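User: Fold this; tokens only.

Assistant: Input:
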Amino acid sequence: MPKVMVSEAVVSTSSSTLTDSVQAAPKSSARLTMPQPARHPSPTAKAQRLAHLIFERPDLQKAEAFLRDFGLVTCDRNSNSIFMRGSAEAPFCYEIRKGKKAQFLGFGLEVESREALEALSRIKGAKPIQAIATPGGGEVVRLTDPNGFLVEAVFGQTYYEEIKQREPLTLNTNHVERVNAVQRVAEAPSQIIKLGHVVLETAEYQQTCAWYTAHLGLIPSDVQVLPDGSPFVTFFRFDLGDTPADHHSIAIGQGFCAQYNHSAFEVLDQDAVGMGQQVLRNKGYNHAWGIGRHILGSQIFDYWEDPWGFKHEHYCDGDRFTEDSPMGVSFANKQGLYQWGAPLPAKFIKPKINFANVIALLKNLRKSPDLSMTKLLTMAKTML
């Protein structure tokens, strides 16, 4: 089992490969001055897929109604939980558990083998390998990350038959492909293909990044840094070797406490993103931000809040990279969040302030080596 390592980061000006028809961005002078994020040379296991999210909600029916309008499909339920899926073969990607309050509990990651499960079961604090009684079955090792989030490492799930999607729309560009035909998209919830990524905030930034790279083999695709070179947010992908992986499946941001930021779900194309917005707006849900196109990851995006204010993103057309693509480093700022789109609402990046978060802030200012009043003021100046 490897020790959690902090090694020199590989720095490049960008992880993106640009085609000849696109003007390259100017080279960045940003440099990472902290040990993490960095690849681990010999991780305990290599996560292959973001399998599922786990939330508690006081009203299962209200939660299910939002997710169905958002584009997920109910695939199973019991007295305590509802399971939702996309159109891909994954048996489920979202578990809603009955609870007294609305909260994010954690997520599942599929690993490459049962041997990986066995190795993970030997990590300090890990639970033994168990059969998992969720759609698709298989086995699980339950871990707790440095922030207290549940991480379910799974292997051996039975995949389901894919749900049929409509065909992607044919676009007329300089090369005319559609003649004597029109574009029409049915007004219906955007059909989600898969769970794409989850973004977490943490006060213990270095420890958290080191834990995920050492034990689950995450690769940093891009890191945005503050003026002093300390990391503000890192976008991690899975190490799938020569098989292209999404630019990020987990992102970790420097925050003042441990909390969920948002999750993202892939849809077919830009019309699916647009129709999703129309359906959700007509249903009266709260719109968070969009439509636009991100810079890091390049996704066309649209963000919505569930009935408890938790952000969920539709996206399409994201970047993919193989394991040999180096990490990009750039400065964090609001302009670095998107190439084009609707203006960024102040509420989108404004931290949630409540009694529990204030207590966590005071505690973390005392104990976290990654947090200080100076850094908090710098973060606020950078993004607000």
